[in-house]
Amino acid sequence: MKYCQGPLCHTYDTKDRKRGPKGNKVNQTRRRSNLYYMQGNACSLQCQDDWFKQFGEQALNHFGRITQPIVLEEHNAWRKQYRWGYGDNEDRHYFYNMCTGEERNITEQQYNDNNYTLNT
Ligand SMILES: [Zn+2]
Residue 23 Cα, ligand 1 centroid: separation in angstroms? Predict the structure, then answer.
C-alpha cells in the first residue's frame, strides 16, 4: 500500500478519504495498493495535475531543462516500419530513415526484435 502523492488529495471530499469516529472525522490522503496515475503515484488525474502544478517547475530545474533543440539527424532517424497489402514475396518490414527517406529491408524476426538495430 502506498499513499497518493497529490499534495491536495486530502482536500477532495469523498467517503473513502474519511477516517475516524463519528463527530471526529478527518479527511486523509488516499492509500491504495494500485495507483493508476503519474506512473503509479497518484490516485487521480486531478492529483497528478496538482502535483505537477506544485512541483513541475522545481522538477524541471532539478533535472535540467532543454535549452537548445534536440536534433534528429541521419544517424538517429531510423525507425522500424511495416507495410501491408503486399504480396507474399514482398518485403513488408523495413527500417525507414526519417531524414533521408532511405529504406532498408529487414526480416519479420528482426522487426519484432526490440534489440535489433541497423549497423549504420
Ligand atoms: Zn490523490
Answer: 24
- CA atoms within 13 Å, Cβ hemisphere of 3: 9
Kindly list the protein residues that place their beta carbon closer than 5 angstroms to ligand 1, a single-atom ion: 4, 6, 9, 30, 43, 47
Question: pTM to 2 decimals?
Answer: 0.66
10 near 27, Cβ under 8 Å?
yes
Tell me the pLDDT band of 1, cut-offs 50, 70 and 90. Answer: very high
Helix or strand holding residue 94 (H, E): strand 93-97
Are the C-beta atoms of residues 54 and 46 closer than 8 Å to each other?
no
pLDDT, tens only, 36-76? 999 999 999 999 999 999 999 999 999 999 999 999 999 99
